[in-house]
Amino acid sequence: MQLARRLAAESLGTFWLVLGGCGSAVLAAGFPGLGIGFHGVALAFGLTVLTMAFAIGHISGCHLNPAVTLGLCTAGRFPKGEVLPYWLAQVAGACIAAGVLYLIASGKPGFDVGGVAANGYADLSPGKYTIVAALVCEIVMTFVFLMVILGATDGRAPAGFAPIAIGLCLTLIHLISIPVTNTSVNPARSTSQALFAGGEYVMQLWLFWLAPLIGAALAGLAYPALFEQKR
Description:
The model has no long low-confidence stretch (mean pLDDT 94). The chain has 9 helices and no strands. The protein has helices at 2-28, 37-60, 66-74, 83-105, 131-152, 162-181, 187-197, 200-203, 207-227. It is an all-alpha fold.
């Protein structure tokens, strides 16, 4: 029952991340005269994590991201047996949010699903960046994201401020990498949008699982080795 509650919290939190972050990109980024631009989208993603960290962090840890779950597991802070259930809950929440977003967005006359808020490289990259650039970007951004998460939630860090640091870090990551890949660092978020964008976006989805998981696993190994005190 306790695990079920945590999985429900993860689904809810990932639902909010996708609805808030991808929703801002699809519904508000390019709105004529009032569009928030990619700066606003970056802030929206950060705010979703910040708000949910305060809301459900005490319940599930507020991972909202398979890469975060893997990184915490690699660092020895999360049980291996719960990684797959967390991943399934996160992907489910993300896909439900994508469906809700599609229903809302399709209510506008002339709506074209296009790439919605999907991630891509080469021709599907906002800035037409190569596959190598996208791979390096996603690995490095996820690595730094997990290092911030592990540091902000370290027992030696100031108590109560982790959600702020993590939310601002995700905002900065989006400000850097939206032009490169439309920013993933989160396989659940990428999966949810690719399923609705279809076509080549689905074919490129492998990178947005592989790269964030590599970056997260590297951080999960690096942080304990470099910064945790030996007991």
